[in-house]
From TrEMBL:
Part of the ABC transporter complex LptBFG involved in the translocation of lipopolysaccharide (LPS) from the inner membrane to the outer membrane. Residues 235-254 are annotated as: Disordered. It comes from Pseudoxanthomonas spadix (strain BD-a59). The chain crosses the membrane at residues 12-33, 53-78, 99-121, 299-321, 327-346. It is a multi-pass membrane protein. GO terms for biological process: lipopolysaccharide transport; transmembrane transport. Pfam families: LptF_LptG. It comes from the Bacteria. This is Lipopolysaccharide export system permease protein LptF. GO terms for cellular component: ATP-binding cassette (ABC) transporter complex.
Amino acid sequence: MPKLDRYLFTEFTQSFLAALMVLLVVSLGGVLVDVLGDVADGKVPAGLLLSQLGLATVSYLPLILSLALMLGLMLAIARMYRDSEMPVLASIGVGPRRMLRPLLMLVVPIVALVGLISLWAGPLASRTSQDMIAHANRSLIVSGLAPGKFTVLHNGGVVYVGGMSADGRDLSKVFMQRQQDDRLDVVTAKTGKMYFEGETSRFLQLRDGFRVEGPAGAGKDFRLMRYASNEVALPDRQDSKADDDPELLPTSQLLDDPRSQANAQLHARITPPLLCLAFALLALPLARSAPRQSRYGRVMLGFLGYLVAFLMMINGTQWLAKDKLPPMLGLWWLSLPLLVLAVWAYGRDGRMLRRRGARA
């Protein structure tokens, strides 16, 4: 590899990795807040926190990688303009066409990775997440209950289970304590069983036990009741998507699916790698600046452009799903013009640099 190509490739890669690290930290923080909210609401078992965090992050990787690539390239090229490296390169005949090879050495693998995640890994992560939550909702083991241990529930209650079946649905020697306002409720049972009602409701049926209810303070107004069966409501399960939901189907199945929702989801998976390529090519003309001009104004312009394109992709997907756009049009009206604009702007920037180099 020529020294110039190696130098440019190193600059582009280092800047891309730095932008990627920052975006990953910011994105992980947002995803973690969402997952913790579901855990606090009892929709996702606490034992699945890390796995759900990782699977949710995979779905956001096409957006993160594309944005990190564009910002990394813009920062690297803007630094070269600021340090007068680009005018020097232009004066010796090195323009965007000569820089295309080291640029594509980084861009092509990233675009391929974005396409792989968008078309295959992202839907697989969504299906895996859905299956894990559905399996956990059928078992109290994954919900955090374990035989011989006191467990604090999300609503502040305390549960003790003496024994549990292998599938986590049948219990024995159950103790539960709950406090609502100034009332204390203690329930014991010899056996218990979890069952479902409807799509999301879960209940714990306790058999042959006692219930003590009274004031949480120093009062003496306690009531002791013996019951043969007592039902306790558990946190509702997270609404599960149908098995034929387009968001969960593999891309190969979407090709033969006549539904408008499937067509919208197909184009939503095809568009991210095309946008990634378009904005990577736009990075060089967008980053062009005077030697001592601030490089962050152009970066903000590129970020806003990417944000607008991403929002248009989301809106276009919704329009396709609601038959507000012709199915054949898809999202090509967004990706193809951006690609044409990127190629034109890249070539135009090269002609401008050659003219500047000739005058120098």
